[in-house]
């Protein structure tokens, strides 16, 4: 259990790429840019010092929600397991930092967000656990679709 857990605050640098394997397993990946900001005393303003890039991987339900919720440039907080990968491409050695995400969310210190709970199955109207007067949860989107979610358009369930 010697996993390196990290929390990284940054901006979504690429559109989340959603894939579904033949067995139905969902995965999503995007690049995260985390810039270090420093106070420049001479200019009396904040400036970017350098930017680190991470490839964020999400799996299963988190992958579906990431693809449906995130867009390029949005501020996010990512928590997960850090993996440093070493590869060789065209005779050159490359290192990449990947994060296997456990949790991803909008950074609310830089804006607002609206949370919409999704579920895999719709509850029955006569569900004994939930009173008939209680509102049902929204169904999960079949294909992640940010625009229809933002517009409030209903997307058919899985």
TrEMBL record:
SUPFAM superfamilies: Nucleic acid-binding proteins (SSF50249). Residues 126-158 are annotated as: Disordered. Residues 128-140 have a biased composition (Low complexity). Gene3D superfamilies: Nucleic acid-binding proteins. GO terms for molecular function: DNA binding. Keywords: DNA-binding. The keyword Secreted does not apply. The keyword Phosphoprotein does not apply. InterPro entries: NA-bd_OB-fold, Primosome_PriB/ssb, ssDNA-bd. PROSITE patterns: SSB. Homotetramer. This is Single-stranded DNA-binding protein.
């Amino acid at each position: 259990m010697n996993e390196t857990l990290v929390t990284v605050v940054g901006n979504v640098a690429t559109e989340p790429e959603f894939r579904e394997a033949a067995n139905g397993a969902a995965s999503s990946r995007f690049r995260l840019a985390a810039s270090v900001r420093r106070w420049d005393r001479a200019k009396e303003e904040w400036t970017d010092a350098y930017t680190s890039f991470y490839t964020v991987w999400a799996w299963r339900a988190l992958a579906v929600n990431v693809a449906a919720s995130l867009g390029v440039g949005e501020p996010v907080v990512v928590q997960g397991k850090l993996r440093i990968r070493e590869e060789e491409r065209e005779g050159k050695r490359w290192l990449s930092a990947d994060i296997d995400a456990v949790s991803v969310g909008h950074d609310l210190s830089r804006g607002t967000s609206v949370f919409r709970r999704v579920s895999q199955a719709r509850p029955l109207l006569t569900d004994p656990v939930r009173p008939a007067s209680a509102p049902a949860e929204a169904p999960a989107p079949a294909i992640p679709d940010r625009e229809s979610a933002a517009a409030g358009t209903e997307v058919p369930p899985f």
